[in-house]
Here is the input.
Amino acid sequence: MTSGPSLEPFPDDWSRALCIVAHPDDLEYGAAGAIARWTAAGKQVSYLLVTRGEAGIDGLTPGEAGPLREAEERASAAVVGVATVEFLEGHADGVIEYGLPLRRDLARAIRRHRPELLVSINHRDTWGGPGFNMADHRHVGLAVLDAARDAGNRWVFTDDGEPWPGARRVAFGGSPEPTHFVDLGDAVELGIASLREHAAYIAGLDYDFDPDAFLRGFARAAGEQVGCEYAATFELYEL
Here is the structure.
């Protein structure tokens, strides 16, 4: 991690979070360690996946990959203390579109779960280098920001539940412009174990990938920046 503005400790004055991402494994590339810390502290965290990641394994058809990746995500969530894992219908892996249907689905879920904090992953164009961030991540991240406000407006999506204006913060893991950090401590091990649950996906990659080296390296670099051994960083928006 490059040097930059000092990061603030992640706020602790919340009790319920809803994590919304495009694919199984998105949260496990860094955020899951923080989630493990939060659930250990008694906070309620739920997951909402926009797709089942059915287009994510080249050697398997979507019909084969979708159920497999859904099962891996449920097992992965359990490692970090998350029992509620839901999947949307009607959005296809690889071609998620930003627009009113996605905003409506997310606002409906936010109204039902009534979180104070929303968590997703990097919605910016890049990860801080030349590698372009995929459309699914960008579209879901923007829709999460907009749906947080939609959920609180009783005149928007009027047939989709009672308004919930309580989702006042949205945090994005893996952002190239982080503002806050979570001291992971021993929870880094749970984050690594959580990513390892995505065994079929990892096995299908066309390169060698070591979850331990990957996650521990990024967490150690973030920790060096903020003064602890291991950290996860987030870009936090206040709504």
Notes: The beta strands are 8-9, 16-21, 44-49, 85-87, 117-121, 169-173, 180-183, 231-238.
